[in-house]
Structure formats: C-alpha cells, structure tokens
Amino acid sequence: MIRVRLVWVVLLTLCFVPTAFGDNYTPGQVIKKDFKSLAASFLTKHCVDCHGDTDPEGNLSLHNLGAVDDLNSGVWKRVWAQVALREMPPKDAEQPEVVDRLQFTDWIVAELSRVMRDKGGFHDHLDPNKANYLDHNLLFAALPPGIKLAPTSSPARIWRVSPQEHITRLNELINTEPVFNPERPGLRTHGDVVPTNHGGELKLYFGVDRIIQWQGGTVAYATAVKSVPAILSSARNHGLKNYPHFYTVNSAEATQVMGIANDIIRYMAYGPLSIAHPYQITDDPDSIKDKMQGDIRGLPTSLVYSTKTLRPLTPIYELLKVKEPTEEQQRAAVDFLFEALTFRTPTPEESDGYLIILQQSVDKLGHEDGTVLGLSAIFLDRDALFRAELAEDSKTDRHGRVMLQDWELGLALNHSLSYIKPDEQLRAAIVEGRLQTRDDVKRELERMLSDETIRKPRILQFFRDYFDYDHGGYICKDNRALTAAGLTGNPNGHYRAMFDATASTDRLIELILQEDKDVFRQLLTTNKIIVTGGDRVYLGKLNTKEERQASIDKEKLAVAEEAKKAEEALEAWKKANPGKEPPKTKPKKRPAVNHNISVATLTGPKEYVRVSRRSFGNGSMRPDRQLATVPEDQRLGLLTHPSWLVSHSDAMDNHAIHRGRWIQERLIGGGIPDVPITVDAMLPDEPNTTLRERMRVTRENYCWTCHKKMDPLGLPFEMYNHAGLYRQTELDLPVDTSGEIIDSGDPALDGKVSNAIELIEKLANSERAEQVFVRHAFRFWMGRNETLNDAPVLQAAHEAYKENGGSMNALIVSLLTSDAFLYRKP
Amino acid sequence: MLNRRNLLQGIAAGAGSALTVSMDPQRLLAATDESRTTKRVIFFMQNQGFDPKTCIPEGMPQSGSLANKTLPEPISPLESYKDRLHIINGLHGTHTSPSHSAFFGALGGYRGGDGVPPSASTIDYEISKVLPETLLPHLCIGMDSIENMTAKPTVANLSASGAGQPIFMHSNPNHLYQMLYGGISTGDIRRQHEARSNLLEQVEKLAAAKGKTLPANTQKQYGQYVQGFRDVNGLRDRLAKVSDHLREFAPTVDERYTRPEFETDWHDALLELGISALTSGITNTLTIGSGRGEIFGAWKGLGVEQQGHNLGHMAQPGNPIWIKIRQYNSRMLVKIMEALDSIPEGSGTMMDHTLIVYTSNNADKQHTSGANWPVMLLGNFDGAFKSGCFTQLDGKRPINALYSTILEMAGATCDRFNMDEKLAKKFDSGNGAVKEILA
Q1: Which end of chain B, N or C, is less surrounded by CB atoms within 10 Å?
Q2: Is the dihedral of CA A204, A207, A211, A216 positive or negative?
C-alpha cells in the first residue's frame, strides 16, 4: 500500500536506525530512551504507512502522534494493545524484531504510567483480563537473542481480604462448624468458606445451629433469623477477582465492620441471649407456648433456641462473664481476638495498644459496654482487613529482592489454600522458626495438600475464577425466554437450580482434584456430573417439533387409555354390583408432562455438596446429590454443564461472544482488545431469528478482526440453549453448531469444528491450552500478571504438572515454591 | 473505583458513624442559606403493596385533575395537600419479581427477592450522587416491629450503591440520634458518643502508624483506608462545628426513644430524625422503608393487633387495618411536607424544591406479577412534575422509567435506568422520561 507521507515523517525516517535497542534487553528494566529515540522510529517504520494523514486505516492517524501526554493517552493505549497483541503491524507487513516490540510496548506502559500518575493512573497492564497480551510463545518457547531475563519476584504489597474470606473469618468467632466427615467428604465442614445463601447473597448467620423451632414458612424464617450481609465490596465479574491492588476498605465499610463487631462480641459472650429473650432458649418449645401466642411470624421472638452451647467459648466469654475482670483477663481477650482476626500473634506494642483502648472504653462506659466497644477496635486493625507481604525484616539479595519470612511467609502460604487461620502445625513451624526456606515451604505445603481434613477453599476459588461457572444464579432471565427454553414452573426455581448447580460443579471439581491425575483434561472432558433431582430437566434434550408432537400424542393416548381403563373398571363394577350406585371416585391427576423436553436419565452413587447454613427455613439449599454420567454424545466436561453454559448467557439467549471469549482467553491464550468507544456493541433485535444469524453484524470488516477470535469459538455451543439444555434444532430447523479455531498460535489447533464437543476434545489435547491453564494458576496464586521474567517459573510449573501425570498438587507446589511467590521487591 | 461521594454515602449506612471532607461544613449543609435552593428527594416505601383503589378517587378511570375529587379514605390526610399530589397508575415492574417484595429491585428496577443481593445501585443512591453534596449524602431509615428493630437495628434490603453493595438502613432512633446529634447530646448518648469518638481517633492513629513504612505502590490503596477513618472522625468534627445550627433542628430525645410503648413510637422518632436531617441540611436524600423492604412489619400503636405476613394477604380496599396503616403513612407524608414548608428557601420554601416518591416495594399487592405499580408523588420538584392530578399510564413503561425521569429532573442525563437496550425492548415501550407526568 502506497501512502503519501508528510515531511515530518520523512524526517523521522531519516533519523531512524533499525533495531537500535541493544542486544540485551531485560523486561522491566528502566528504558532510558524517549519518544524521539525510540517510539517515533518504531511508528515510522511500522505504523505510519497505513496510519498516515490521508485516508488512514481504521480512521486512525499516527503520523503526528507525539510523546505520550494526557490528551493522546487514549491513542497510545490502543497502540500499546495492538502492538502487544501482535495485531499490528498486520501479518502481511514486515514484523518488528521481538526485542523491538517488547521494548516499544514496555516504553508505552512506562510513559502512560508516568503521565497518568495524577489522573487515576494507568493500570491496563496489571489487569488480569489483559495478561494474555504477553505473547504466549515467548513464555514457553526458547527466547530469541537479545533478551536477558532477571530473577523474578513479586512486589511488596498489602492484599485486602475478600468478602468471602472476611465473612468466613468472622464466622469462626461465633459458629462451630462440623468436623470433617470422611464418609461424606463433600459436606461443608470446618475450613470451608461461608457460602452464599438460597438467593445468592453472602451473609453471616447468628445462632442458626441452635434454632429448633420457628413460626411460619421460609420467608418468615429468613426474616426472623439474625444475619448480616457481607460488608467489604468486590465486583461480581468474570475472571480473576482478587489481585492485591483491586480493593481497599473505605470509611463506610470500616463503620459497618465496627457495627458488626459489636454484634459478634456480644454473641461470643452471651450466645443467643444477645439476640433473644431468655425464655426462647429451651429444649422444650411446648413449655413456652404461652409466650408464643398470636401471629409472630418473621419476628426474632418466633424462634426457639436449644440450650446446648455450640458456639466457641473463648476468652471473650470469660471476660464478659465476670463483673470485675483482671487486666490479665482483658489482655487474654485482646490477644485472642487479635490472633483470631489477623491470624498472627500481636506484637507487645499491639497488645498494649489495644489493651489501653479497651480500658479507656471501660472507664467511660463501664465493663460490659466498654469491653464490647473497646474490643471492636481490633476488627479494624490493618491486618484484620489486609494481609501484608512487606518483607521488611529480611535481608535483600544481590538482585534487590527480599524473601518472605516467618509470619508473612506462613500467612501467605496459608492464604494460598485456606481462609481460616493456620493449623497448629503450620503455626508451630512459624513460631519455632521452621518456616524460613524453600524446603520449609515445600514441606508444609505438601503436608497440607495431602491432608483431606484441611479444607482448601482457595483452590476451589481458583477454579471458579478460571471457569466462571458460578454466575448462573445471577443472570437475570426473562420468564418467557425461560419457558421458551423448555423450562416450566416457577421461574424462581431456575435461580435456585443454578445456585445448586454451582455447588454441584464445585464438588465435581473436588472429586477430580482428589484423583489428581490429568486434571486439566479431566475437567474439560469428564463424562461425570453431580446432580440434583431437578437436573433431569437441565441435562435433558430439547425436543424437536416431531418429538414434541409425538410426546403430545403419547400423552393423549395415555389419557385415552386411562379413561378407557376407568370406563372398563366402572363397567366391571356395575356388572359385579347390579343396581347399585358406583362409588364416586376422584380421577387420578396425571403428572404434568413437559412436551418441550425429554428429561435425562441420571443415576449414580450418592454425593454431598457444600451449601449454606439454613437461611430459608425448610426451603434452604440441601446438600444431597448424585454422581451421575452425562447423556452420551450430548455433553463433555465442565463447559457443557448448565452451570457454565448459563453463566455465559444473558436474559434472553446464549452469549456466544462471551463463550468464545472465554475459550480464546482461558484455553488458547489470546487477548481481546477493549471495544472501541465508537462501536455500538448491539446485535439486531430480530425475533424468530437465530443468534448466529443476528451475529452477522460482527462479521463486518471493522468488527471481525476481534470477533473472529471469539464468535467461531462460541457458536459451537449453540448445541445448547440458554438454559443449558441440549438441542438439535433451533426454530424447528437443524441447529448450526459449526465453528473454527483461527490463528490460535498453534497451527495444529487451527481449523474447523463441527460442534462444541469436537472443539473441546481438540483443546483438551492441546499442550498450549494446558500452558494457558498454568498461566492462569500463576496469576491467581501470585496475585499479579506474569511478566517475561516469570517464564522459567511458568515452564517449571508446567513441567511439574506434566511429570506428575497432570497433577494439580504438583503444579501448586511448583508455583508456591518459586521465586515469584517467595520473594518480594520493595 | 472509590470516590469521595461513595465514601460518604456508605457512612450513612454504618450505625453510629461520622465523616468529614476537607470543605467548609456550613457549605455542605444543604441550602441552609435562604438565598440558595437545592433539590431533595424522599423515597417512602411501604411494604405489602399499594393497591391503586386505595389512592385513586372513585369515578376516575382516566387521567385528570384531583381538584374536584375527594381522596379515598386511606389517603384522606392528604386531602388538604392534593394540589401537590400526583397519583400515577400504570407503571409496571414485571421484571423485578415483586411478589413478596422486590427488595433491592424495587428501587433498583431489576430482579430482586429474598436473599438476592443487589445487582446494581438503586435510584436513591444515584439521586444522592446527582444532588449537591451534603454532609451526609443519603440517609436510610427502616421501620419494623419493635422486636426486629431491637434485634436487628440495621438491615439492608432496599438501597444499594452497586452490585453486591447494600446500604444499611437505621432502625434504632437512639443510634441514629447519636450519629447525627451525638455532639450536642447529653447523658448516656453523650457518653457513648465520646467513648466512640475516642476509640475511632485511636484507631485512626494506629492505622496511620502502620502505613508509614508501606511501599509506594500500596500508598494509594492504604491511604484510602486511613482516609476512611479521617472521614469518620472528620464528620464528627464538622457536625460539632455546626452544632449551633443543628440544635435548631435536632428533635428532643424523650421516652419514645428510650422506653417505646409501641413500635410506632420508634417509627415516629425515626421520621423526626429523618425530617431533621433534611431541614437542617445534613442530607437531601432520604429513604424510608416502612416494613424495611420485607413482608412483615407491625403497627400496634395504631391499634393494629395483626402483624406481618397476614397483612399482605388481606385485600386492602375498604380494609380497616389498611386504612389505618395508609392513613398513618399519609400523616407522615404531611409531617414531612409541613416541616419542609416551614423552612424558607429561595423565594419559597424547601418543599418547593422537593419531591416525595411514595410507593411500595411490593408493587400493588403482596402476591403480584408487578403488572401495575402505583406511585404517588408529592411536590413538583421546582415545577418539573405535574401536581394536583391523576395520571393513568398504559402499563408499558417500567418503574425504571420513573427513576430515569427523576434523575433527569435532578439534573442528570439518563435515558434508561438499570435497563439495557435488550431488556428495554421487552419491558419498556419508550425511552427517557415519562412525559405524561412532567409539567
């Protein structure tokens, strides 16, 4: 393509020195070059030909793009994304050397970070959704000459606890969770997170383990029970949710934490007496009938608590039991609460500080109110809300890194698996100075991983973040669209089914992890599924027009036969009882038949899953499940389960773009640039038209550059509808489930597929997809995006995984004993 | 991400808290200067549904003036104010699943339900962001049975600042008084206020001390955490600085606060506190949840012995119990209007710039599809809305459209509120403001 260049461009060209970036570039190093000496020449050589001043491609002119400033930062962001993703220069143009591309993109990031510092900052390169901008092949193949890696580490940082982690931590103070039951290992037990309730809300419940009777139904129970919602904020997005820098604690949250602290401390001291009248605590509800008169549904006074003490009895209980406590009792309460909330022992200064606050509050308000208020300060301690990885007390190595030690290392390790405080053995290792080295970490980690009684909710959280199968209950569905998808009955039942499905998928993943063989492939290709009774519908097949009619005919025939039998029986009775009036019998009501679907036959051994504490009376979620086999040739692995399919749908239909994006980012390792603000990202509203047909608009040239990376990967899942039901027809015509992998980076992967199952089988056998999985595990456990300097860590983790037969445990051990996990850079 | 208004917003939700910003506290008292005017919005959500027959005058099938009509008995206390009243029938909320309450969905215009977390912010929160900043941008109060208000003095069912971010409402007037007027209080409230103040100041110092050696990349993140305590402690100082002004508006703490005979004593006290927060200029957005967004609630002080869910099972028209409750609501609305009318503002009174939105979190009845969602507006919001009339809509515009209309009249640009184009195609026959209700 021939373009007219401006004089400005010509001058730049004259100044350009090819590959002037030196031979040994280390990613992350300070680039001592400016716009003129680095960026202008790159733009001139690789961009301006097409993006000049006359009729520029994509209507984007770069010919007079100057040094990065706040006015042109938007353009520079686009340039960064396109060059980093290797979308630009186009494939048919001359490509920059790898080191040139790296240095150019790193320079843009550095400049954008500098320029945007006082304007909200530049964070795109830290966004996990953009982590794939780093070329996969650079991480897993031999590096080209000119690149020298630096020993890796992670930045020193503080990491705010997640809402679920926070609620689980608080729950430990007031509720005693059941011990591990080897007969039913799937049941929720001590160490598991507090899960969301029947409606998907995360709440802390008070005293539900002691409620033995209540008045009214499900809603009355939910209203009467004391509960508080999660306080700390977080986004409910797809993908990795909790990098250290994502969240802080604001004043509103701090104030609410203090309010809840008051409730918790009182409950720790007095149990249900803090939320109920003394008469409500009895093992004989009949004995207080006189106090339960009238309609008291929904009131806290409608609850009856057993007399059995079930909550943990702690030094807080001891302190508030006495009228005149000693300072030792006060200090014991402070120290206990500090460790319960921060997971480490307080320093003498911290212990003294909180003791003084406690005593001052007692002086002002008296023993009870003062103790409650004074102790509530500990709930607001930095380390009760953030986990610090500062590595302040260790020596810096020759690369400027510091290895985490003692409590910081112990808590980082503990947090990698658990939301509750370190178990006794890990605590002892920390306190006794036996957690100092890489081998120490490996020892403790392998011990914890092999101990089934130690719950590891963080591992399960990784799989939720990676697969995004836990959103189904939050996708608001149009009732009529649900009916059209084949579901009948109360639409609210659908949301409950989806929260049940999330818990089922959790358990299935856990079973695969238990085997710990070929984990990634198993997850993608297992024919097992955990189900409730209602899943017969969700795993059923949407009937074709003919099947629907056949079902209607069959039902008609059955009704007619039943009527005939009844008639014959009547005649027989009359014959046997001449002259007598036959007894009036009510016709037996036939069960309703949903002609839209053929339900699945699901059988298998019993299983149990984690569900929340009773939150909705008799309507609360139930843990009973079955381990079944999916209908043959219809489903394969997690991506074909309703939990995943519905999580990637919208109110009315499938979301083929989201599904395709998931495949592209989580399996193929490609990146998708942000949607340009000029794009009106809407599909046409055309009822009685397939989604594939409506998605024709994305095949416009301008859109297709990005959409070719998503749409052909998502459309094979059209073999399921938006409620997750398998279908062979759509709008009474054979459903088109074809798709294609385009420019994956692995030529062996590229090519057409006939449906989702073929696509999944192809990807499940791909080493590249396995490596992309490892990249996501790295991000989750390191709390940051990988850099090129992390390539050895990633390669070692992948090797460990492979050498151990596809072992997730081996992968985790490799990652958590790596420099990226152990070392911090101030 | 965080911004100052978000921070202040949530503080109103925390029991007994305070905040500060680095601006002149006098300036942040909404329109305490008579020459300035500011808009304010009050949302009053009665639970169990709002049957249109209890508010639309008899023989009024079509839109028209209320001038020559007599208001139905349940809202008869508003008779003298019907020139300010606008009854709207024919909005819908079928997408909010309002049977047994839409919870957050009532003010959010999205699917709600028991135990269903908010999926986006609610209109009251969004309005508070649009209106001029005040010391406390948004205040929520919740009225319930005395047992529930005592055992659960703060709950979050109606308002939210975002997905999964509920805003708590206050139900214990003693706690709320301490939060708003602790600095000018005496006795026990004063002592608790001082103890809490002392504690929070020390917590702030501890937090600041632990941040001194943090690396540069965490300074902003941690700085916001420390700033949170400064905000909390600062508001207290700022309220103290305007204490002379607040004294003029603070209600008197009496036995209704400390020894309530019925829950309605606390309901009245909470309303007084809410009104005082408006008249003193502490806030300009108030949400009142009568029944706290759930399907229970009690009004024994009105002589209503039945309570809770049963009330929702009764037909409301002609029902003496519901007449009592609705009249009680109406008297509360009158109290609000009288209080705002008594404060000069601009060339008129505070009420001239105010909009009261009265409706139910249950649409028209407890077991409902939400096909009809009656609303009453009081006040014309600086002349933006029609008043003294009844408007019958065609049932094709959702409550979201009403919320967009209020947002637009408050100064924001909003074609749709919490409804994307895809849903709008199913649930909204129009776009932007509901023109039929505008002046």
Answers
A1: N
A2: negative
Residues A184 and A38 in one domain: no
Domain ranges within chain B, ordered by starting residue: 1-53+132-143+159-279+294-306+341-355, 398-439
DSSP sequence for B284-299: SEEEEEETTTSS----
Length of chain B counted residue by residue:
439
Summarised one tens digit per residue, pLDDT across range B42-97 is 999 999 999 999 999 999 999 999 999 999 999 999 999 999 999 999 999 999 99
Mutate to test the interface with A, among B116, B154, B233, B420 (most CBs of A within 10 A): B116
At residue A146 the predicted structure's pLDDT band, cuts being 50, 70 and 90, is: very high
Flag whether A577 is in a domain: no
Q: Which residues, including other chains, have CB under 8 Å from residue B338's CB and lie 6 or more apart?
A: none
Report pLDDT for B52. 97
Q: What is the pLDDT of residue A234?
A: 81
pLDDT tens, position by position, A548-581: 999 999 999 999 999 999 899 999 999 999 989 9
Tokens 């020390």 found at: B202
ipTM field: 0.89
- Looking at the partner chain, which of A201, A249, A383 has a beta carbon nearest the beta carbon of B228? A249
Q: What does the mean pLDDT of chain A come to?
A: 93
Whether residue A29 is found in the same domain as residue A94: yes
- The letter for the amino acid at A524 is L
pLDDT given for residue A3 in this prediction: 41
* CA dist., res. B58 & res. B70, Å (int): 8
How big is the A-B interface in CB pairs under 8 Å?
A: 238
**A158-203 pLDDT, tens digit each:** 999 999 999 999 999 999 999 999 999 999 999 999 999 999 999 9
Whole-number Å distance between alpha carbons of A677 and A281:
61
Same domain, A382 and A466: no
- Domain end, chosen from A387, A412, A430, is at A387
Q: Are residues A632 and A531 part of one domain?
A: yes
Question: Is there a domain that residue A497 lies in?
Answer: yes
Q: How many domains does chain A have?
A: 3
Q: A27 lies in a domain?
A: yes
The average pLDDT across A198-218 equals: 94
Q: What is the C-alpha separation between A675 and A78, in angstroms, rounded?
A: 10
Q: Determine which of B95, B114, B154 to mutate to test the interface with A (most A C-beta atoms within 10 Å).
A: B114
Residue range B154-201, pLDDT digits in tens:
899 999 998 888 899 999 999 999 999 998 998 899 999 999 999 999
Note whether A265 and A311 are same-domain residues: yes
Task: Collect all residues of chain B within an 8 Å Cβ-Cβ radius of residue A235.
Answer: 163-164
Name the 3-class secondary structure at B414. Answer: coil
What is the C-alpha separation between B164 and B120, in angstroms, rounded?
Answer: 7
pLDDT band at B36 (very low <50, low <70, confident <90, very high): low
A573 belongs to a structural domain: no
CB-CB: which of A255, A369, A474 is closest to B11? A255
Task: State yes or no: pLDDT of B12 exceeds 80.
Answer: no
Looking at the fold, whether A382 and A463 belong to one and the same domain comes out as no
Distance separating alpha carbons of residues A769 and A719, to the nearest angstrom: 23
Secondary structure letter of residue A666 according to DSSP: I
Domain boundary among A355, A387, A419: A387
Residues A512 and A631 occupy one common structural domain: yes
Rounded Cα distance between B359 and B357, Å, is 7
| Cα–Cα dist A279/A288, whole Å | 7
- Taking the C-alpha atoms of residue A256 and residue A250, their distance in angstroms, rounded to an integer, is 10
Helices B187-209 and B173-181, packing angle to 10 deg: 60
Give the β-pairing of A624-629 and A751-753.
Answer: unpaired
* CB-CB under 8 Å, A250 with B228: yes
> Would you mind telling me the total number of residues written for chain A in this entry?
826
A240 and A350, same structural domain? yes
Range(s) of the domain holding residue A318: 159-387
